[in-house]
Design a protein that fits this description.
The complex is a heterodimer of chains A (117) and B (206). With 117 residues, chain A is mostly helical. Chain A has helices at residues 3-21, 25-69, 73-78, 85-90, 92-99, 101-116. In chain A, 85% of the residues lie in helices and 0% in strands. Helices cover 79% and strands 0% of the residues of chain B. In chain B, helix 1 crosses helix 2, helix 4 (83-109) packs across helix 8 (174-181) and helix 8 packs across helix 9. Chain B has 2 domains: 20-127, Orthogonal Bundle (Rna Polymerase Sigma Factor, Chain: A); 134-206, Winged helix-like DNA-binding domain superfamily/Winged helix DNA-binding domain (Arc Repressor Mutant, subunit A). The chains are: A mainly alpha (117), B mainly alpha (206). The interface between A and B is medium-sized, with 30 and 37 residues.
């Protein structure tokens, strides 16, 4: 851009700025109202977001819980007879085994004493 | 023991949460004030730019208001230095949509009324460069000179018009103009250069 282009641009800018300064009061008032509507819209949107935040939080937590509880397919395959840890914990037999833990501990202790003796 | 200490001992979680909410509220308020200042500083120039593009003040006011609302809603959280090109991109998109709607309206409604066709013809002539080649009076305070400049700018191809108003009237740099126009910086330079030569050829006829 040469010097005369620069001068042309400068004059055009000056004309434009003068036209901006000539805007009438009614137009400026309309612009002002429009700006406040825009700010109000952004505020309302923020409030809407806050209103949904707890619901979103619960939904995310539930999803995370489901994902964490999801059994690992590889682990399932490696478990003999597809027996999961949950089944062991919840099965009737395992409850019996838990009740007998004291007995097994006694047996271990007894055998250990016997070896020493 | 002060009241605030009691609060932190009795309900530390609540105290932290309240402080956090207060800080968030303060930040939101500061953000809104910042956005208000930005929009207040840009709205009048944006209106004139839209008015030059659509040649109608009421439609220009609507376009500027829509752009302000979209910026505030969707991009209010972005860094403030990004706002000018984003705002003008929204505005330019609105102006393009306006022209598309006008073209469709003219196509479907034009045949209904002879009067409307005549009105369209008058608009086209009004928006064309001055055929008499009168010497433009670039008196810096002259509304008439600005009107001639506006008509010349309106007669430019859309992309040249965008590049010219964003670079010259709004003062965006090449990078910002490229963001606003959604094109490369090289394209901005090309459109801008062609716009200036076209405008000078029109307005500086002896």
């Amino acid at each position: 851009m040469n010097q005369s282009d620069d001068e042309f641009v400068r004059q055009a800018k000056t004309l434009f700025d003068a036209s901006v300064d000539r805007l009438d009061a009614a137009t400026l008032s309309t612009l002002n109202r429009g700006r406040h509507r825009a700010l109000e819209a952004s505020r309302t949107q923020a409030i809407d977001w806050l209103r949904w935040a707890p619901v979103t939080g619960v939904a995310v937590a539930a999803l995370a819980a489901v994902l964490v509880m999801q059994p690992d397919p590889a682990a399932l395959e490696s478990t003999p007879a597809s027996v999961t840890e949950m089944e062991i914990l919840l099965g009737d037999e395992s409850m019996e085994m838990l009740e007998d833990l004291e007995f097994y501990a006694f047996i271990d202790e007894f055998e250990a004493d016997d070896d020493v003796g | 023991m002060t009241e605030s200490r009691e609060t932190s001992v009795v309900a530390p979680g609540f105290a932290v949460s309240w402080d956090g909410e207060q800080a968030t509220g303060t930040r939101a308020l500061q953000r809104e004030q910042q956005l208000n200042r930005f929009l207040a500083g840009i709205e009048r120039r944006a209106l004139r730019i839209a008015e030059i593009a659509v040649r109608d003040r009421d439609d220009a006011l609507d376009l500027v208001q829509e752009a302000m609302i979209k910026l505030a809603r969707k991009y209010g959280g972005r860094p403030s230095e990004e706002w000018p090109p984003i705002f003008y991109r929204i505005l330019q998109n609105g102006i393009r949509d306006w022209h598309r709607r006008q073209a469709v309206r003219r196509r479907f409604m034009g045949w209904l009324s002879r009067e409307s066709r005549d009105a369209d013809d008058r608009d086209m002539i009004a928006e064309a460069p001055d055929p008499a080649g009168r010497t433009p009076d670039l008196d810096l305070e002259s509304a008439e000179a600005m009107d001639q400049l506006e008509r010349a700018v309106s007669a430019l191809p859309a992309r040249q018009q965008e590049a010219f108003v964003l670079r010259t009237f709004e003062g965006l740099d090449v990078a910002g103009t490229a963001v606003a126009m959604g094109c490369s910086e090289g394209s901005v330079k090309t459109h801008y250069s062609r716009a200036i030569h076209a405008l000078r050829a029109t307005l500086e006829k002896p």
